Structures
1.
Amino acid sequence: MTRWPDRKQESISPPSSRIPLYPAPSSVPMSTTLLIPLLRLPTLFIRSVLSYFDIDDLIKLASLSKKSCELVKPMKVELKVNVYGEDRHLEIQMNSRNTETWKFKQGKPNTTEITTRIERKDKKDMFIDKWILSKTKSADLYPTMAETIRCLTEVLTCLVFEVNIKTNSLSKESKIEDLRVGECSNLMIIGEKCMENSELAQILENISATELLSISVPTNSEFKCNPNHFKCKILKIDRKGGWVTPQLLFEMKCSRIVIRDSHFDLKDCISFVWRWKLCDLKKHEKFECLEIQFKDAVRNPVIPEGLGAQKWNKKTRNQFYLRLGDPVYLNCQNGLDIIQEDKETLATILIHNDGHDFFFGVWPKRLTTTGGIGGSSRP
Amino acid sequence: MSCEEPTTSPTPENNITVVSSDGKEFLLDLKLTEQSETLARLISNFEYDRTDVKKDPVPLGNITSAQMQKIIEWLQHHRYYPKWEQNDIHYSTSFTFETWVEEYLNIPNNEMFELLNAANYLNIPRLFSTICRIMASRITGKSAEQIRTVLNIKTDVKNDVYTGIPIQEDSSSSEDGMSEISLSPSPPPI
């Protein structure tokens, strides 16, 4: 980014013959100052100008007065917090266009000197450093990161959009709760090695995802977790997770659950379907669909007669199902329909992709006597 | 970015007349008005783009003749530029400006603010955005002290909760003797 050179300001000063409209305070000679009474413009104009500021300048401006702080507050900023071992950084996006990455450099341990600093490619000295230095004397990364996040969320209207955590990288001294990110839209946990139970528990207990929780790391089958921690709309588990059972899945409050590389077989899936069929739907209103990838393909699936599964009837529902967060329609032509105990709610079981994938989805509209059931129209 | 300007001579059929707040008339090519969403909508609503429709002068009560002259200069320069895209990163984030734009906006701040108001009134997004960007470029990158000076913000007794440094009180009240920016010029004398 090329900065407007300071010397330009001299050149755009009003000619001396003009009567200055904005006289400088007596302490500041006019010849050396160009006054811009920005804060006296209508709010719409001020916000438009501020939308071109970078984040550090916004924080700087907010610190100058109460009014400027109020003007800066509505500048919507999205934060992405990445904790990848030693590489910990914030990605900050303002108004869907200006994206900045702030890296946190580890300070020297066992010293009182504060060396943990934010680094940005094009800027060495950042104003926000002063704020952090006034708040924490720690040389560790988490307090620095936490204070930065707190500053951003308090001064600006900030949304922690995404938290990415690479496991096996969290030091025992620094706990994830020190980040103090209580809630975010998307929480992504990734890693190659099997995750320690305490580490996974620490993350799930301290950071709540509202939209998407993705666990893409092998986990222990002994892991125990309160299903109430799973309240996000979409849950994705991409690696072996022996601790996930049909009962646990059913108690989760997620709308869409996707499990890849699972240990589930058809029996486990049918067990889930039975629970849904017999449950009190008021307690499971949020649930929309379950997708499980089998380890071994199911060639001749047998669905228990007791479920009352029936082939697709064009009059009762649409052919295509639109899954939450997925633009691709699922063809449920070969699915088997099941009616819940309330006699109104229809769901479909579909085993597709040559027997590798299991799908169980609840149709959004209830059965009526006059018309068919809703769902998605043909794409 | 620069665009080659084809030579076209405006004819009475493809012009409209706009009248500034001080009563001066300007003949404006319809092609130029496409950059102003306000004028474009007005022309579309009154069907002034049709040759068989009588075109009454359009009064622009919020814009002086000096501002209108300046705006026409902008419209003529950007006559053959592609349509403005709000989310075009090329336009939105850079603090690099064309030499022509630098010279065009090499005006006192009060004139620039009034031009900003006119751009907003006529809804000329490229001009509005450019002025905002150029104003931002004159403030960003400065130290807190410099920003305080440039924006003329006075010191308050309270300390900032975040930094511990003194919070400044805005000097936007009339007590500081600064003249108000006239964003809505008074109507022309009858």
2.
Amino acid sequence: MSIFMVLVIVMAIATAGYFIGRQRAVSKEGGNVKPHSLPHYHGWWVFLASALPAVLFIAVWAAATGVYLERSAIAELPTRTADTVIASQSLELGMVSGIARGLDRLSDAERANLPQTFAELQPLLASKGVALATEGQDYMIPIAVEWNRNTAWASSVGGIVAIVLALAGAVFGLSGVNVRARARNNVERIILGALIAASGIAILTTIGIILSMLFQTITFFQSVSPSTFFFGTVWDPRFAAAGSGGSQGQFGLVPLLAGTLYIAFVAMLFAVPVGLFAAIYMAEYASRSVRSVVKPLLEVLAGIPTIVYGFFALVTVGPFLRDLSAALSGGYAFIQAQSVLTAGIVMGVMLIPFVSSLSDDIITAVPGSLRDGSLGLGSTKSETIRRVVLPAALPGIVGALLLTASRAIGETMIVVLAAGVAANLNINPFEAMTTITVKIVNQLTGDLEFNSPQTLVAFALGLTLFFITLAMNIFALYIVRKYREQYE
Amino acid sequence: MNLMTERNLEKAVNDKMSAQGNAIKMQGKDVTVHYGDKQALFGVSLDVPEKMVTALIGPSGCGKSTFLRSLNRMNDTIEGCKVGGLLTLDDEDIYNPKIDVVELRARVGMVFQKPNPFPKSIFENVAYGPRIHGLAKNRQQLDEIVEKSLRRASLFEEVKDRLHEAGTGLSGGQQQRLCIARAIAVSPEVILMDEPCSALDPIATAKVEELIDELRENYTIVIVTHSMQQAARVSQRTAMFHLGNLVEVGDTEMMFTSPTEKRTQDYITGRFG
């Protein structure tokens, strides 16, 4: 009995429960007593009482079965020795489960006289469309057979229990249908539970991401010391020399961090004034009809994929700046096509809608009574904005800018195409610099062993980046929250 | 008892004054206001005499606040608002395109329904107007203006030790008096008040009313109020609005004792509104 079939049966029971429950609630109405809940709430309560425990059981059972199957298979594998052919236990286990999957496809007749050696089995399974690694061993076959038997047993027991649970839940729900029964409150409680579970998943995912990066990072720090990583000024991971004796490569974070912050700074330098002025225009000056056209147009910018911005930087802005500098100096192009300036300007364009949209909301949130107060004293519109509205909105705007800056720091595609890959440490914005995100892309797309420091450094970089943006976001939220308290 | 007689005496003096007739400070002739397609005022003609308190009363949505806001062109800030007819300040058309709106608003100050101090210190709130209009040549003059305005708004004694703390930290009544001080600081000729006590408790209301009575000596005041008692207590002239029309205008005493219009009588005695 497959999980899918069980789910269908459980849902059918629950749906039937819904209709019966609703019917029963209707039939119990009509006395002197006012019913507590509407009939459909009784229906939903029966549905949930029936489906929820069964579905949860299926999920837990499936997970537990997986663990149990692996445990029992490992127990049956021969003890590992120095001359075990297969590199790791997990690889061995993978092969066993592969064979088990293949055996599942065989007909009963074929299964009855199963070949005893892997050499014979492999072509048979291959003909069924299951390709197996060539290192398979003969001893794996009985284990795989056992595996399949256990799987079948577990799924039928689990299926039966789930269906029984569904029926029991339906009976329990139906027995509770009563004129004064509080089905409405029960459903409410379950909705609350579901909402909490949804936000819980988001948080757990974040924790999971951090943990997965953390473990790889720890492995990286076993071969490269944290102090040389965080304070090293040379980035030279030595792709070519990887694995070949002695040369370790240098993993200095400083040039990458400097490039990241420098490019983000140039981007903010460009985006903040433009975005802020656009926001002020839209919040304070634009009539409603202009605003309804301009604001969506500006937000189109936010919808452009960043890779397209990267293209724009690479083929248009970069060469333009280079030619411009050549024309200005009379021959020598002092601005390189790939430079901090190019990446910064294009990233700045990308950030304009974020700055303007967030600031617009914040400026609009400043109470109109303050504007009236200032205008009523005979100040002009721009005086009002400069001396009353912006100071009042300042904490919120700072928060918005921090959120934008953390986006700039985490931005990848624009810098991959426009900033260059040279890990220079300089202050000339016309030269190429590189960022943490660019190096993560480089290290992970390289053709390297996964457990070499050259690859693992990407996780250390990623984690560093994560903590930088996390700190900025938390700081921004703190400021925004503080600002909110002022007016509510 | 003594207080009552004093009040009555004052009232009698006021009546005499209004009987003599003060100069007309502001004048509305056939004023109409549209908000988009909706007409809010239908040809209102009303004189505002100098150095008196004129109260505008009437049920909600009758157009009294709209009329008030057209007196210093605060209606301009509302999108789709159109004002027609003639409005004058010292016989000068304030809707003349040549008029500087900013300057007009400095001459005709406004205090709003809800106290709206800026999120700045008490000092900075009062100094705001003088600063933008360049009324003080140096810090000392600015200090003087701030102190004088706060004294006139009967707030100085309460806040003199914390002038540099946030204005938003004051109580509601104090905030409203701070807003009045802020309006006074730019030395306006007319002060418009849009239900200045509606967000205040009775004690704070009493203080603000007392203050309005004192300010009458130097300023022309127009006040919108929902409270009949307030109109009776603080004003010398009362104008009754209903459905965007001016029903009747006259000396407060007369309006509350023997109104000519039935609608006024009904409203004052609480039969509608």
3.
Amino acid sequence: MDPVLLVASIMVSATPILLAAIGELVTEKSGVLNLGVEGMMITGAVMGFAIAVSTGSPVLGFLGAAVASAVLSLSFGLLTQYLLSNQVATGLGLTLVGLGLSALIGSSYEGQRAPTLPKLDIPLLGDIPVLGRMLFSHDFVVYMSLALVVAVWAFLKYTRAGLILRAVGENHESAHALGYKVVRVRMAAIAFGGACAGLGGAYVSLVRVPQWTEGMTAGAGWIALAIVVFSSWRPIGVLVGAYLFGGVTVIQLNLQAAGTTVPVELLSMSPYLITILVLVVISARGAHGAPGSLGRPFHASS
Amino acid sequence: MIKRRTLLAASAALGLVMGGAAFAQDVPKIGFVYVGPVNDGGWSQHHHESAMQMKEHFGDAIEVIEQESVPEGADAERVLTQMALSGADLIFTTSFGYMDPTINVAAKFPDVKFEHATGYKTADNVSAYSARFYEGRAITGYLAGAMTESNKIGYIGSFPIPEVIRGINSSYLHAKQANPDVEIAVVWLNTWFDPAKEADATQALLDQGADVVLAHTDSTAPLAVLEKAGAYGFGQAADMAEYKPTPRLSSIIDDWAPYYIERVQAVVDGTWESHNVWQGIGDGMVGIGEFTGPIPEDVLAHVTQMKEDIASGAYHPFTGPINKQDGSAWLAEGEVADDGTLAGMDFYVEGVSGSIPN
């Protein structure tokens, strides 16, 4: 088995869930549980594909996907933050809306081909033997997703705005008493989560598969949600989780293709087993890391 | 309160009208249940299109109801019950995993007739129908063997059921006829439809050195990846003509329409009886798509001849001598596999490596 090709495949496979999960992490850090990741991803997948096909530019496709999914997520924000609807139910509704809407929009794009996203051949770094081809010959979205993880980590840890976002998520009443605009902060976080999920979806339809098929994200959004829990709401954990899930999928397929005799079921099961294990360890330690106000409705009068 | 009462009365009246209308046009109601979306570009789409051809044939004489993306298992049972309750006379359940749900629901509705695709269980009101896809696999397998330069072909398996195992064996045996050095690598996905996973599996096979990949899943994702890599593949369940002339070299096309028309006619005439049919290229249920791409002349001549011989019955894709994977004899020289063994096939033939998951 060629490790160069393997690592390259893992990076492609992990990128969509990494993007969606890092967005959801920010949303949840602000205290909002948006279960509509799958719906936003599939919307991003179809919008990204449609725009890339009509304009011939995959970059515009990615931008369009981010905008479209952010707009969709704002409808969730409007319902949960201003009209105080139940977040779990609304999030599930968002998934259903996204799946239906994408099928409707996508019906005329079946069987079409997307313009390909060029791979960046980074000078110098790309010329390093082995490592160059393994790590430095991907398209820009792969690097952007990694940069985004670092950016989110730095934002949450070192900036004032990040501190406010965390304060809103930990205890919205205190944050409100301090004069922070809880609802506005949360709307911004929801839109960011939507945009990231849209990018992740577009990566599936423009790079990983590359075509539009109804229902093509096939549960990636739910895995992204699981990864956020797995990470105990830390960006580095999201990175590890996404590469673990993506890695196991790809390694499992490669082991099969190479004809090894490791039981397939065991490998497919392993990320879920590890998630359960991590959750057990976290709860045994007593600190699960979930934001204090996660999923709770907030109204300035209460 | 008055308003609410008016509303109730109105809806009751509406209900009567609707009920009356339904009663007035009491035509046979035909149900279809699909495992994927009806525009998956493959399996489910082809069942749907065949259903639509059947509907066109009968016009207003029948009514068609469809349900797509129904998961195999408990959900299928719920959907089937719902269809039976809503007055369906004949229900086609178009995926292997619907077999037990179909049998269970059929037992509860003895007056409703069921047709289950690709399974083997039948009852007084349940027929089984399937196509001899392995006949098509013989042809695509031969092409794969002839076209591979790395001597390694890949096969994306969905579930380890007899239909898929037959496909793998038939593909391998005929790839080997074309190229004695060929190896086959099998990847199991445990899903019929998951484009991202199908794409990843195709990439994994390419990374492991395969340059022709046969898919036994429902989407066109493998062809999209093969196109990018400059490798070859085949249309599965549908022609997948949008990938002509390459990477698609040919295709196995399921044509269910004539069967659907025949069976619905039987319901209309009141002559429907449970049966178990298995039709192939000769009956037209399995079609072979146009040969495209850089196929050499002699290979083209061979597969064209092979198609005719299979259709006429002169050649059976499982003709001995064939050994099982462990080297034990299965078919003697000139012996032809019987349908019973084929229907329950749970072993690889000699030369296929790896083991079948349980």
